[in-house]
């Protein structure tokens, strides 16, 4: 077989730019270095991230918790707006707030960024957002992967995913077995849509209403695009602060499926969580999606968070302390309901939303 000449096939000709990938790594190093913890060993560039597990010796029986997630079709909003340094906050929030539900402290994350074409500054901006999110969550970003998939993704298309690991003492594990009749539901406000339901939202605002992202929306107080790209609130440190300050029995991270479905995941079979819609007013974006798309309330509630990003289930006597702790941390929170003996479903939504 003869040797190929300059006209032969190459990785670059197939659409993969190794040099651009290397430059992206150099650009992101500054941000990754900021997302660290004392237990992290080494620096970016190795084949694996290293975390000193001897830090777990202070635990009597440490349980490792693991979670993985992405941000769904919210990446399409970032792509359309050309804003790439906030989507990482969404990724971190989706992962670490699943970890903290069981009481686990998030320790570290890894990320996966897949692009149609590597634009180094763009990839670095995505990782910058992930690193900033890790700082907000109190965990380290110990590694990741950037993959270029020409032919499968368009040049401007991308997706992100991540995995996280946390730790909790076995006898402090939170969950359904701790919940009792009379417990109080403390709702923590979301920052907006977070990262769920964007397939419905995009269908409503783009396909049905024909709105543009730069449209000024008076009821939102900003453009449509700015509202849709609002980063997911990261609750991990707030939830951990609650567990140290008062008797917390469980958390529920309100993501895909909405409040009732996610709360039901931590309610034991013999109890019912009764949620009073009248205890809060959903942000205008939820009303907007409902009215523009003529979306029924049941459909909205099973798709969007409706203004609640996290629920803490606490002992009745701990409710005031929990609210005070969250207020001190700048988290808007309120009593949204109680736990009773099982009457019907695991979760019952009552009343109408406050106007």
UniProtKB/TrEMBL annotation:
GO cellular component, one term: cytosol
UniProt domain PurM-like C-terminal: residue ranges: 181-348
EC class (word): ligase
SUPFAM superfamilies noted in UniProt: PurM C-terminal domain-like, PurM N-terminal domain-like
GO biological process: 'de novo' IMP biosynthetic process; adenine biosynthetic process
Keywords: ATP-binding, Cytoplasm, Ligase, Nucleotide-binding, Purine biosynthesis
Compartments, record wording: Cytoplasm
Gene3D superfamilies: PurM-like C-terminal domain, PurM-like, N-terminal domain
E.C. numbers: 6.3.3.1
GO MF terms, alphabetically ordered: ATP binding; phosphoribosylamine-glycine ligase activity; phosphoribosylformylglycinamidine cyclo-ligase activity
Pfam families from the UniProt entry: AIRS, AIRS_C
Predominant localisation class: cytoplasm
Keyword tRNA processing: no
Ranges of residues in domain PurM-like N-terminal: 60-168
Known catalytic reactions: 2-formamido-N(1)-(5-O-phospho-beta-D-ribosyl)acetamidine + ATP = 5-amino-1-(5-phospho-beta-D-ribosyl)imidazole + ADP + phosphate + H(+)
UniProt entry tagged with the keyword Transmembrane: no
Pathway membership, UniProt: Purine metabolism; IMP biosynthesis via de novo pathway; 5-amino-1-(5-phospho-D-ribosyl)imidazole from N(2)-formyl-N(1)-(5-phospho-D-ribosyl)glycinamide: step 2/2
InterPro entries from the UniProt entry: PurM-like_C_dom (IPR010918), PurM-like_C_sf (IPR036676), PurM-like_N (IPR016188), PurM-like_N_sf (IPR036921), PurM_cligase (IPR004733)
Family indicated by similarity: Belongs to the AIR synthase family.
Protein name in the entry: Phosphoribosylformylglycinamidine cyclo-ligase
Species assigned in the record: Streptantibioticus silvisoli
High-level lineage: Bacteria, Bacillati, Actinomycetota, Actinomycetes, Kitasatosporales
Originating gene: purM
């Amino acid at each position: 077989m003869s040797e190929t000449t300059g006209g032969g096939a190459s990785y670059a000709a197939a659409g993969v730019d190794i040099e651009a990938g290397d430059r992206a790594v150099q650009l992101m190093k500054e941000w990754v270095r900021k997302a660290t913890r004392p237990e992290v060993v080494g620096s970016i560039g190795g084949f694996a991230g290293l975390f000193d597990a001897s830090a777990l010796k202070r635990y009597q029986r440490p349980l490792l918790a693991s979670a993985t997630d992405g941000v769904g079709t919210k990446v399409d909003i970032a792509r359309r707006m050309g804003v790439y340094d906030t989507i990482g906050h969404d990724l971190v929030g989706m992962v670490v707030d699943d970890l903290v539900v069981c009481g686990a402290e998030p320790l570290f994350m890894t990320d996966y960024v897949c692009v149609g074409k590597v634009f180094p500054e763009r990839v670095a901006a995505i990782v910058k957002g992930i690193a900033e999110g890790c700082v907000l969550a109190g965990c380290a970003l110990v590694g990741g992967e950037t993959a270029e998939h020409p032919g499968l993704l368009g040049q401007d298309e991308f997706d992100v995913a991540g995995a996280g690991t946390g730790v909790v003492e076995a006898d402090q594990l939170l969950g359904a077995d701790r919940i009792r009749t009379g417990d109080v539901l403390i709702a923590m406000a979301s920052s907006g849509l977070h990262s769920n339901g964007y397939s419905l939202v995009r269908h409503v605002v783009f396909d049905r209403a024909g709105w543009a992202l730069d449209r000024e929306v008076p009821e939102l107080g900003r453009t449509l695009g700015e509202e849709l790209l609002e980063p997911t609130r990261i609750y991990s440190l707030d939830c951990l602060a609650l567990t140290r300050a008062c008797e917390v029995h469980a958390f529920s991270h309100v993501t895909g499926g909405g409040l009732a479905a996610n709360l039901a995941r931590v309610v034991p079979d013999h109890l019912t969580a009764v949620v009073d819609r009248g205890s809060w007013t959903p942000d205008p974006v939820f009303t907007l999606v409902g009215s523009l798309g003529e979306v029924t309330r049941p459909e909205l509630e099973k798709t969007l968070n409706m203004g609640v990003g996290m629920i803490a289930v606490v002992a009745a006597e701990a409710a005031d302390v929990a609210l005070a702790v969250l207020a001190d941390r700048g988290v808007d929170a309120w009593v949204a309901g109680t736990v009773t003996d099982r009457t019907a479903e695991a979760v019952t939504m009552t009343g109408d939303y406050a106007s």
